[in-house]
Specification:
The complex is a heterodimer. By secondary structure, chain A is of the alpha+beta class. Helices cover 59% and strands 9% of the residues of chain A. Chain A has a five-stranded parallel β-sheet, sandwiched between helices. Chain A is elongated. The two termini of chain A are 51 Å apart. In chain B, 29% of the residues are buried. Chain B has three helices and no strands. By secondary structure, chain B is mainly α. Chain B is 74% helix and 0% strand. The chains are: A alpha+beta, B mainly alpha. The A-B interface holds A 109, 113, 142-144, 146-147, 149-150, 152-154, 156-157, 161, 457, 460-462, 464-465, 468-469, 471-472, 475-476, 478-480, 482-483, 487, 561 and B 2-9, 11-13, 15-16, 19-20, 23, 25-27, 30, 34, 41, 43-46, 49-50, 53, 56-57, 60-61, 64.
C-alpha cells in the first residue's frame, strides 16, 4: 500500500460541512469557480496526513482554531480509506491522542517526512528564495535535517574543545611570562624555562637540571646551605612573635578604651536612675501632662486630687521630669551597646594573648614571659564574668590599672627586645642574601613549572581530542558534500528532462541547483536563456516558465524521494501556464507518474477536461458555488462544461458568456498549435479571439476533413461558423471589455453562444476521450488515444441479405430461379465459410490469397462449431445441420438439384449459417474467450478514437 | 526520542563512517563510538556526543599517565 485514496470523508473542516469523495485509487481532478472549496479539500488531505494545515500553522496572527473547524459546525474530522487495504483512519481536530492504526503508520510517517502538496506560493517561495533558505527547503524535502543536526553537534564539540585548548595556551603563555619575570629571563617554552633555571642555579654554583624533579633536589641542597630546617621554622616563629608584640600595646589600649567607655556610661546611668526612682510613672506623667495641656479648667492635681494653685508651674515641673526620664532611657541603650562591643572584642584579645603566651613558651627567649601568661589568665576571668553579665569588682574596676595587665605592659619592652635579638641571630647573614634571593626565585620557578606541567598535559589532551574531532568533522563535511552533489546531479537530470518535455526547443534549460561558494548550506539556482550565460531564472524567464520550472523541481523531488508515498497534490499550480503547455504537463504526469495518485485542483474547466482525457483513470469532480448553508458541495450528476454554463446562464448570463468565451479562446489556442496555424508572433502568446478565429476558419476552408462518424462534417462546421460569427463578440462585450450594452446580454444569448461553442469543440474532439485532435501528416488524430491508422479489413464475402432474396426467388415464378439458387447458395456457403475462417481463426493451411474452397473449410468449421457451440445450439445440433447441408453434395461437389429440392436446400443452408449470424445486423459473429459477439454491432456502438483523414 | 534518519541522511552517514574508517589516524575508540551512535541514531545527541568526547579525553589522560609512569 502506498497512499492511494479510496474514499475521503470531510466533516466540518474549513469550508466543508460534509463531503464524501470516492476516487477509488484513481486520479482526482477537482474543478470549480473561485471560492468553491477546492483548496479546502487540499487542506483536508494535508491535515489528514500531517496533522496540520501548513498555511495556518505556526503563525501568531492567524488563529488556527478559528480557521480549521467549519463555522458553527459539529465535530471536525477527516476520514480516509485506502485503495488495496481494509485499513482506514479518521483524523479529528484537534488531533490530540489520535494515531493511525499500526499498519498505516509507515505510510503516515512517509507523508509527514516530505511535502506532497504543492501550492503556487511554494513554487514562488522556492524560486524566489535566497540560497540559504532554499537549502533549508531542500533539506526539509529530502530529510537532511538530521544530518545537518549531526554536523552541527560535532562542529559545536570541535569549537568547544578548540576554545578550551586556546584558553590553556593563553594560561601557559601567561605562566611562562611570570616565570620569566621571576628568573629575569625570557621564557617561552619548556626548553627556555630549563635554560633560565640552569642560569639561576649556576649563579648559586649548582649544576643544571634535566627536569623539574631535579630542580626540587637542587632547592633542597640550596636550603641546606642557607639554614637548617629547624632554625628556619624558629626564625619564622620569632618573626610572628615580634609582629604580635608590636601589635600588643595598641590592642590593649583599644580594649581598655572600650572598657572605660562602658564604665563611664554605667556610672552615669546609675547616677540618673537614682534620681529618678519614680521612673516607672513615666507613662502616667506623660499622659497627665497631655491632659493638663489639653484642658483649661483643671483645678485639681490628677495625681493627688489636691487643688491646683499654680497650673503653669505644675506643667513646667512635669515637663522637666519627663525629659530627664527619656534621657535615662537613652543612656541605658548606650550602656547595652557598649557592653555588646566589649563582649565581642575581649575574646579576640584573649585569644591573641593566649597565642602569644604559647609562642613565647616555645621560643624560650631570654626575657620573662610569665606576665603574658598571667595576663591571659586574668583576661579569661574577665571574659567569663562578662559572659555571665556579672558586674564583679574586677569588671567594674579600670582594667588599665589591673595588676596582671600592668605587669604585661611593664614586661613588653624586654620581651620585644629579646625577640628581635634572637631573630637577628637566626636570619641569613648579609653575605647570604644573594643566595637567599636565588632560593626564593627558584622556589617560585618550581611552583610555576609544576603548574605548567599540569596545564601542558591538559593542552596535549585537548589538542589530541581537537585533532580527532577535526578529522570527524572534515570527513563528515566531505561525505555531506559528496552526498549533496550526487542528489543535486540526479535532481538536475530529472528537472532538465521534465522541463525539456514541457518546453522543447524554447530556449530555456541548463537548470542547475548549485552550491554557493564558501557557504556550507546553500543552494543557488541558475538556468540559461537562449544561450546566454547561466543566470538566476528570475533574471530573464517569464512567469509561466518560472511556474512550470517550479513544478518540474517539485516533481523531480517527488520522483526521487517520495518512493514510499504515492500521492501528489497540486493545488491550482498552473494558473500562469498557457493551455498548450498545460496539456504537456498532463502528458508528463501521465508518463512519469503512472504509479502515483494525483489530486489536482483548477478553476479552469477546459484544463480539467484535458487532464481527465490525458490521465488514464482520472475522475473529475465539479464543485458547486459555495454557500454557507451547504458548504463545499459537488454537483449531484456529472456535468460537462457546457451543462455547467447553461445552468449558470439562467442566473448569471454574463459569467456564463465569459466562461464560454474563455473556453473558446483555449480551444482556438490549442487548435492553433495542433493544426500549426500561422499566427503572428506574440512573446506572451496572449492572442485574442479576433486574432485566432480567422486563421482557424481559413484552415477549415482549405482542408476537407473526412470524419467517418459525422459524414456531414463540412456542413455542420459551416453552420457553426455562421452562428459563431454573429455571437463571438458577446464574449468581448460581456467579459473581456467594458461595454454598456454588454451588460444587457440575456440568458438566451448566453445559451446560443454556449451551444455554438460546444458544437464547434465537439467537431474537433476525439469521440473516445474528448481530447482536441491534432494534425499528424494527412490525418487529424487524437493525441491522447494515439490510435494507429484505421485497419483495412478485407471485404466480407458473406452476403448477409441472401436469405431474403432466396425466399423471394422461391416465392416468385421466375423461370431461372432454380439455376440462380443452385449457383447462389453454394457461393453463399463458400463466402460464409471463408469469413468464418477469419472470424473464428480456424486452424487451416494458409493460402496467400485466402480464396479457400468450401471443401477445405467445411470440416474444420464444423469441428470448431461443435466444440464451441453458439447460443441456442449444442454440438449434436451443429453436426445434424451440417449433415443436412452435406446431403446436397456428392463427391466433393454440389450436386444438381431438382426444383423440388430447392426449398429444403435453402432451408438447410439457412439452418447451417443462422446460429452464427447477428440477429440485429445479420453480420457474422466472432468468438472471443468462448463467447460469441457481433464485431460490427460493437464497432457501431463504441466511439472510435479520432483518426480522420484530411485532404 | 530521535526521529529516524531519512534514506539520504543514512546513506551519507554510512559513507562518512566508511571513509573515516579507511583513513588513518582515527582513534579506534572514537571510531567504535561513532558506529555505536550511528546504530542507535544518537549522532546528533549533544549529551551522547559530549560523553564520547569526555571518554576520549579520559583515555588520552590515562595513556599519558601510563607513559609518564
Amino acid at each position: 500500500m502506498n497512499g492511494k485514496i479510496k474514499s475521503l470523508t470531510i466533516e466540518n473542516f474549513r469550508g466543508v460541512r460534509r463531503l464524501q469523495l470516492e476516487p477509488a485509487g484513481r486520479h482526482l481532478i477537482i474543478t470549480g469557480e473561485n471560492g468553491a472549496g477546492k483548496s479546502a479539500i487540499v487542506d483536508a488531505v494535508e491535515f489528514l496526513f500531517t496533522g496540520r494545515v501548513r498555511k495556518l500553522a505556526g503563525r501568531r496572527d492567524v488563529d488556527e482554531r478559528l480557521g480549521v473547524p467549519y463555522l458553527n459546525g459539529g465535530p471536525t474530522a477527516v476520514a480516509v480509506t485506502f485503495h488495496g487495504s481494509d485499513q482506514g483512519f479518521t483524523a479529528p481536530y484537534p488531533t490530540a491522542g489520535s494515531k493511525p492504526p499500526a499498519p498505516l503508520r509507515p505510510l503516515f510517517s512517509a507523508a509527514r517526512a516530505r511535502p506532497f502538496v504543492l501550492r503556487r506560493d511554494q513554487i514562488l517561495d522556492f524560486i524566489n528564495a535566497r540560497p540559504s533558505p532554499r537549502y533549508e527547503q531542500i533539506s526539509t524535502i529530502v530529510g537532511l535535517q538530521p544530518l545537518d543536526k549531526v554536523d552541527a553537534t560535532w562542529r559545536r564539540q570541535l569549537r568547544q574543545i578548540t576554545s578550551h585548548k586556546s584558553d590553556l595556551e593563553k594560561q601557559i603563555a601567561r605562566l611562562y611570562t611570570e616565570v620569566g619575570t621571576a628568573l629575569y629571563e625570557t621564557v617561552e617554552s619548556p626548553v627556555t624555562l630549563r635554560r633560565a633555571v640552569d642560569m639561576a642555579l649556576r649563579d648559586a654554583d649548582l649544576p643544571p637540571v634535566r627536569d623539574r624533579q631535579e630542580l626540587g633536589e637542587r632547592l633542597k641542597s640550596l636550603k641546606a646551605q642557607l639554614i637548617s630546617g629547624a632554625e628556619h621554622a624558629v626564625t619564622r616563629q620569632l618573626a610572628d612573635i615580634a609582629t604580635q608584640l608590636e601589635e600588643l600595646p595598641a590592642m590593649l589600649d583599644s580594649l581598655f578604651a572600650e572598657q572605660e567607655a562602658l564604665l563611664a556610661q554605667r556610672a552615669a546611668f546609675w547616677q540618673q536612675s537614682a534620681a529618678l526612682a519614680d521612673a516607672r510613672w513615666e507613662e502616667l506623667l506623660v499622659r497627665g501632662l497631655a491632659l493638663l495641656q489639653a484642658g483649661d479648667d483643671w483645678l485639681h492635681c490628677p495625681l493627688c486630687q489636691q487643688p491646683v494653685a499654680d497650673l503653669a508651674s505644675l506643667q513646667a515641673h512635669l515637663t522637666e521630669r519627663v525629659d530627664a526620664l527619656q534621657a535615662l532611657t537613652a543612656l541605658r541603650r548606650d550602656v547595652s551597646q557598649a557592653t555588646s562591643h566589649l563582649h565581642a572584642s575581649l575574646p579576640r584579645t584573649v585569644e591573641q594573648i593566649d597565642e602569644l603566651a604559647s609562642a613565647l613558651a616555645l621560643a624560650e627567649l631570654d626575657g620573662d614571659s610569665a606576665p603574658v601568661a598571667a595576663a591571659a589568665t586574668y583576661l579569661h576571668s574577665l571574659e567569663a564574668a562578662l559572659l555571665r553579665d556579672e558586674v564583679s569588682p574586677e569588671v567594674a574596676a579600670p582594667w588599665r590599672e589591673a595588676a596582671p595587665l600592668q605587669a604585661l605592659a611593664d614586661a613588653w619592652p624586654s620581651l620585644r627586645a629579646a625577640a628581635t635579638r634572637r631573630h637577628a641571630e637566626l636570619s641569613p647573614a648579609a653575605g647570604e642574601q644573594p643566595l637567599f634571593e636565588i632560593f626564593n626565585r627558584l622556589t617560585r620557578a618550581d611552583t610555576i613549572w609544576r603548574q605548567l606541567e599540569r596545564l601542558e598535559g591538559q593542552r596535549q589532551q585537548a589538542g589530541y581530542v581537537a585533532d580527532q574531532l577535526a578529522l570527524v568533522c572534515n570527513e563528515l563535511a566531505r561525505a555531506r558534500r559528496h552526498g549533496l552533489d550526487r542528489m543535486r546531479r540526479e535532481l538536475e537530470q530529472d528537472i532538465e528532462r521534465f522541463y525539456s518535455f514541457l518546453h522543447p526547443g524554447e530556449g530555456y534549460g541548463a537548470i542547475h541547483l548549485s552550491p554557493q561558494p564558501n557557504q556550507r548550506s546553500s543552494v543557488g539556482l541558475t538556468a540559461s536563456f537562449h544561450g546566454h550565460d547561466p543566470a538566476h531564472p528570475l533574471t530573464l524567464w517569464s512567469e509561466g516558465h518560472l511556474d512550470s520550472l517550479g513544478l518540474c523541481i517539485f516533481l523531480a523531488f517527488i520522483k526521487r524521494f517520495n518512493r514510499d508515498f504515492h500521492l501528489i497534490v497540486l493545488d491550482d499550480v498552473l494558473t500562469t501556464v498557457d493551455a498548450g503547455h498545460r496539456l504537456r504537463v498532463a502528458r508528463l504526469l501521465a508518463e512519469e507518474f503512472a504509479g502515483y495518485q494525483l489530486v489536482m485542483t483548477t478553476h479552469d474547466q477546459l484544463w480539467a477536461r484535458q487532464l481527465q482525457a490525458a490521465l488514464p483513470n482520472a475522475s473529475l469532480v465539479t464543485l458547486r458555488p459555495w454557500d454557507l448553508e451547504r458548504g463545499v458541495a459537488t454537483w449531484d450528476h456529472p456535468l460537462s462544461d457546457w451543462d455547467y454554463y447553461r445552468e449558470q446562464a439562467a442566473a448569471r448570463p454574463l459569467d456564463a458568456i465569459a466562461g464560454t468565451g474563455r473556453n473558446l479562446e483555449q480551444f482556438l489556442y490549442v487548435m492553433s498549435a495542433n493544426l500549426s496555424l500561422r499566427l503572428p508572433f506574440k512573446p506572451q502568446a496572449d492572442y485574442t479571439l479576433g486574432e485566432m478565429l480567422p486563421p482557424f476558419f481559413a484552415w477549415c476552408d482549405r482542408h476537407a476533413v473526412q470524419r467517418p462518424d459525422r459524414p456531414a462534417f463540412a456542413a455542420e462546421l459551416d453552420a457553426v461558423r455562421q452562428k459563431l460569427e454573429e455571437l463571438w463578440r458577446l464574449r468581448n462585450w460581456s467579459g473581456a471589455h467594458y461595454n454598456p450594452w454588454g451588460a444587457t446580454a440575456t440568458a438566451a444569448e448566453a445559451h446560443a453562444l454556449i451551444d455554438t461553442v460546444a458544437e464547434l469543440v465537439a467537431l474537433f474532439s476525439c469521440p473516445a476521450c474528448q481530447t482536441l485532435v491534432e494534425r499528424q501528416g494527412e490525418a487529424l488524430v487524437c493525441p491522447a488515444c494515439a490510435p494507429g491508422a484505421p485497419q483495412q479489413t478485407p471485404p466480407s464475402r458473406y452476403d448477409r441479405g441472401w436469405h431474403g432474396r432466396a425466399q423471394r426467388l422461391l416465392s416468385g415464378d421466375k423461370p431461372d430461379a432454380c439455376a440462380t439458387l443452385s449457383n447462389m447458395i453454394p457461393a453463399i456457403i463458400r463466402g460464409f465459410l471463408q469469413d468464418m475462417r477469419r472470424q473464428l481463426r480456424l486452424a487451416v493451411p494458409a493460402r496467400p490469397d485466402g480464396d479457400y474452397r468450401a471443401t477445405e473449410l467445411f470440416r474444420p468449421f464444423v469441428r470448431f462449431a461443435a466444440t464451441h457451440p453458439p447460443p441456442g445450439c449444442d454440438a449434436a445440433e451443429i453436426r445434424r445441420r451440417a449433415r443436412d447441408l452435406a446431403a446436397f453434395r456428392d463427391d466433393g461437389a454440389w450436386r444438381s438439384l431438382s426444383p423440388d429440392e430447392l426449398v429444403p436446400f435453402v432451408a438447410a443452408a439457412h439452418a447451417f449459417v443462422a446460429p452464427f449470424t447477428c440477429d440485429t445486423c445479420g453480420g457474422l459473429l466472432a468468438c472471443e474467450q468462448e463467447r460469441y459477439h457481433c464485431p460490427d454491432c460493437a464497432a457501431a456502438s463504441a466511439p472510435v478514437p479520432a483518426y480522420w483523414f484530411v485532404s | 526520542m530521535s526521529r529516524s534518519y531519512s534514506q539520504e541522511t543514512g546513506r551519507i552517514l554510512d559513507d562518512f563512517l566508511q571513509a573515516l574508517g579507511q583513513r588513518g589516524g582515527v582513534d579506534r575508540q572514537l571510531l567504535d563510538a561513532l558506529h555505536e551512535l550511528r546504530a542507535d541514531e544518537g549522532l546528533s545527541s549533544p549529551t551522547r556526543v559530549q560523553q564520547v568526547v569526555e571518554q576520549l579525553q579520559q583515555a588520552r589522560r590515562a595513556a599519558q599517565d601510563e607513559w609518564q609512569d
